[in-house]
């Protein structure tokens, strides 16, 4: 009798507990959909005396994070607000996904290239803010959604080509500007390989480093050649498998030829930087920030950046342009006014300039001059080279990045059938996620 | 008296059963893990699960991590215990050193092991080179990576089974061995007919404790291979993690999670029950 | 250990080389960690060669940028909180499970054992959203409740095994004397649980101190970062100074290694008590 009673009690108590925490922020079925909220620019300033605390999260690490943090310190000193700064590194995207799923985001955060495709649902449009008119035309299309809304302050622009070790190329009499197509590039790799150096270095243990390869190579096959561009198809939900197979085959050929480092599956990004800085490899598929990172290993390393070769003779080399440090405001923040003040502060030429300098990138605002040192030579030299957005962010649905990394790893592991599988798996996931 | 377990039951309801049920619901959707919207897709995720080679690999790997390290830990643990059960100088130091790694966070142990198994500058390859061999890219082959991580996990926690067996051995009255020796029974037979049967309770505990650790292996894999190359060294835990956060298939990740939850629960319960019966029979 | 006996057994000589090999294998990770942590980033010699010049900047770097000291305090707070609850709730739950072997209780015990084996990540997604609804993210109590839930099975397992070995006649005598179950538990059972409590504290304490999977999601604020989180973020952030990361790892394991070296008797005894009743 006693036992039954206690059982009933247990059940009753637990039920009441369960109902107490039933969904408040549960994801809603798609019929409801989320509407972007109207911009709230005219929010009155926070009444003085009330302590304002902002949370700020960013994906960037190292020098960039230090520069951001010191900018936030300046903001705190000026306004008396406190800003809790958090840079969780590798786990940033995971944390943001859990936060989005429970609709509980930081007041202000950086969007690492995804301000439109992934985060726009959660961001406050910035079209009416002071700095909107100063955003550089180079980055504007990348951060604008189909309805003309922009959601972030782009502090700097990431203009990326292939990073190389100047000495390794010079020792082998290779002129980076002569590498116009992937065939030229492969021929150069053969020469470097013969000299006993790994032509390319990928730290495949970190998986994202493999995705870099495809982001660098795919545009030349899909979109840079205007006469054969498949951009419209991709946007319309059509994925061309044979083209992807070509790219995959190229990776497989280069693997078989030994153009990648022997530990391509197990090295990490750190070892990429070490190899690049110490002349153990010639090329890496990273943007200018890698030059900063490699110099951290060896300050005397002589490093350069070249445009990305084209897939055919009829096309010209290109560069990739994307958001780098771009800062947005959570649309449901309780501190909208303070968050907007913060964005305005970060958009000041001297503040934005200092952060862009640490990133080694040019500014995303028209009236900011960044002292860039070495890298500036390359930006100037390739000023007229056409730029394209990051392939996966622009042309693939969110979530495809991991598929590129995983299928690439199979190719690098020289698994039989990996090349054909890559195209098939890419198409399957593309269609699933496009329909999603 | 049953009311005593109310707090525990409440915690399980809120943090295990309720999430489990909600996970069951999510597994019927195509939720990407962060959006406020999703669609119901029925049993599609489950259909996919049974044809997905990566899930099969991860399941197999989980069993290898679980049972492989359990086997190693018990064989090695027993060997070490028999060794330390002899009397010689430095034996307590040895026991301390073998047990020490148990204290270290597996994540940190994983990072330290990366200094050993990396290709360039890896401590193991330095030895291979010094012996005149060719450098080996240890983690580049999936099965080898799985084997290495099983061994690393086993060695890190072998101290646990060792001390369990050591205590078990010390509980066996010396006179049994003396009597056996007098009857001319050899060391091997003594081990088989005296030591092992009397150690049965210790074996049960050691197996259960080790199995729990091995089936959950996560941190070491994240630190050493992130589940790579490709998907070759994933355990179910790391696969769920990657499917949820990397591939943005939270619905599918929930399905994998639920199925592995049930499978492991069943396997674990069966093993525990098997050993509990054994003990009762003794 | 009697020294005279050792001399009297010449057959023990073979144990010395074996012991040496074992020692080498188990100390190698610590040696390499030390060797990397004290090495200057420019020193590209083999890790086996201990650096001749100790590069202490790695440690100042780790303390300042890795915020290792703060993370130790955080780890301590949540470990103490979690272990307290794990022992109390576990002992309470174990008592009826060990004493009343009804079908329901057997079922619950089986369930508890199952939970112990299951990879918690399989339900992480919804677990996290439950915690969000309770506003437990970035709160000590949030992570403590989760750790308690997933360490409870071990605690219940150890306690119920131990209580089963206490003769039931004691309870019966107590109840004949008019003690209710509550009084029986506190008067008769609780005082006898000291040794097994030591085991529970030690085993679950080490787990909580080293937890990574749960803390990663629940403790997102850098102010609340625990040791494994601090180390993980430090390893992922330092692109150029793996040596400072190793220094951070070394600092991180120092407290628990020291505690273990001083209290190892209790650690090992606890483990043994838990396994052999």
From TrEMBL, chain A:
Residues 1-24 form the signal peptide. PROSITE patterns: PROKAR_LIPOPROTEIN (PS51257), SBP_BACTERIAL_1 (PS01037). Residues 24-49 are annotated as: Disordered. One of its GO terms (biological process) is transmembrane transport. InterPro entries: Bact_solute-bd_prot1 (IPR050490), SBP (IPR006059), SBP_1_CS (IPR006061). Keywords: Cell membrane, Lipoprotein, Membrane, Palmitate, Signal, Transport. Residues 34-48 have a biased composition (Low complexity). Belongs to the bacterial solute-binding protein 1 family. This is Extracellular solute-binding protein. It comes from Lawsonibacter faecis.
TrEMBL record, chain B:
Its main location: membrane. Gene3D superfamilies: MetI-like (1.10.3720.10). GO terms for biological process: transmembrane transport. It is found in: Cell membrane. Pfam families: BPD_transp_1 (PF00528). The keyword Glycosyltransferase does not apply. Keywords: Cell membrane, Membrane, Transmembrane, Transmembrane helix, Transport. InterPro entries: ABC_transporter_permease, MetI-like, MetI-like_sf. It comes from the Bacteria. Belongs to the binding-protein-dependent transport system permease family. This is Sugar ABC transporter permease. It comes from Lawsonibacter faecis.
